[in-house]
Amino acid sequence: MEKEKLSKLKLPDAPGVYFFLGARKEILYIGKATSLRSRVRSYFANDIVEKRSPLIEQMVALAKTVEHTVTDSVLEALILETNLIRSHKPKYNTKSKDDKSYNHLIITNEEWPRVLVVRGKDLTEKYSSEEIKYHFGPFPSGSLFREAIKIVRKLFQFYDTKEAVDAPLSKFARGKIDFNRQIGLYPDQQNRAEYLRTIRHIKLFFEGKKHKILAELEREMMKHAKLEQFEEAGRLKKKIFALNHIQDIALIKTEHHVYRDEKSVRIEAYDIAHMAGKDMVGVMTVVESGEANKNEYRKFKIKTLTDANDPAALREVLRRRLEHTEWPYPQIIVADGNIIQKNAIEGVLKEFNMSIPVVAVVKDERHKASRLMGPEMLLKQHKLEVLLANSEAHRFAINYFRKAQRTRALQ
Q1: Low-confidence residues of the chain, pLDDT below 50?
Q2: Which of 142, 222, 232, 394 is buried deepest, with most CB atoms within 10 A?
Q3: pLDDT by residue (tens digit) across 295-336?
Q4: To the nearest 10°, the Cα dihedral for 178, 180, 184, 186?
């Protein structure tokens, strides 16, 4: 799609969901935005590859137009995006079809339904299909989803403890429940019908049907007003106002933070360490915006090998890493080695249908970097960051290997 077509789209400066469409009007990509105008324009920047990925650049080139749906809030844009991705499964959305790490929202099929946030891997392990009444998700951004749930809780009071309401509880837990019941934060048998209506409203809200909730509340408000039950009518009026003016400033800030992180260049470096195949480990280190991000470092104990085979170990590590689709994807991957290690990583990326440039750091006999293998332009722009990531990976791998050795010796 040409940048010149943007001016004809008349995108509003409002929250919503956008759709990149192909030649046959097929949906290539779905995204959400605080400002549709600003977000869609960002896809046509000259440095789109560095800020996003080669895959997204390819998607924009194939797109013929962009359509959009405006929402009343960023919260509703987040929910709508999730529902649409789940139903349409666009080719260029990098969400795994069988991901087990994203957050899901479930409403349990119990006398007092609970509203629970559940990891994908726990959906089938901890809950049967009969135990789940409604299911929404997956929601890929953990930070955004956590903020979203906080906002939803202000709109609807719901029960979300680990145990069912009627489950046997300790004296301490029962006392806590009794206290929460007294202050209106826990369902009481006398208001079960009201609680079930709240659950139905939560279901409608996550289905993107807020208008149905508002219509019901407005009818009820008018009924109470006619009966001169002004206190109840006033309570409903406040609820209607809250739904029409969702306070999602915290969500907007988090969304901006996530997007800013997307635009920074993330480099992931991998290294393998062992002693003749024993205590074999692998590591991932991360450099973002030129600095080591040690909170993102990861360790991998090699599970599939007993003999020395660095390329095979590297393939195992990368496969396991790519299964964690809740982790941000890198713009560059760095291998410690030569063409063999580079090919091993590129082979795994091909398996996952991903296009991420790979750089190999070739070492001399003293294990010092002698040359870099990879795209020339990329190496010119990020040589120092690549070397930093590689150096950190080697250091981190050696430390992890020594710890594994000590653990085995003690055993």
Answers
A1: 95-98
A2: 394
A3: 899 999 998 887 889 999 999 999 999 988 778 889 899 999
A4: -80
pLDDT at 279: 81
Residue at 62 is within a domain? yes
**Could you tell me if 56 and 112 lie in one domain?**
no
What distance in Å separates the CA atoms of residue 18 and residue 67, rounded to the nearest whole number? 6
Distances (CA, A) of 129 to 62, 107, 110, 323, 403: 40, 11, 12, 24, 43
Verdict on whether the full-model pTM lies above 0.85: no
**Same domain, residue pair 76 and 108:** no
Q: Is residue 275 part of a domain?
A: yes
**SS3 per residue for 215-242:** HHHHHHHHHHHHCCCHHHHHHHHHHHHH
Task: Say yes or no: 274 and 364 in one domain.
Answer: yes
Which residues constitute the domain of residue 397? Answer: 264-410
Q: Hey, what amino acid is at 249?
A: I
User: What pLDDT is attached to residue 134?
Assistant: 95
pLDDT at 95: 47
The residue among 332, 269, 354, 342 whose CA lies nearest residue 311 is 342
Rounded to whole angstroms, the Cα distance separating 224 from 297 reads 58
Domain tally, the chain:
3
271 and 400 housed in the same domain: yes
Contact assessment for residue 397 and residue 282, using Cβ atoms and an 8 Å cutoff: yes
Report the CATH number at residue 280.
Answer: 3.30.420.340
Question: What confidence tens digit (pLDDT) does each residue in 116-139 have?
Answer: 999 887 888 888 989 999 999 888
State whether 64 and 110 are in the same domain: no
Q: Which residue from 129, 109, 107 is spatially nearest to 118, judged by alpha carbons?
A: 107
Q: Is residue 212 one of the residues assigned to a domain?
A: no
pLDDT of residue 98: 46
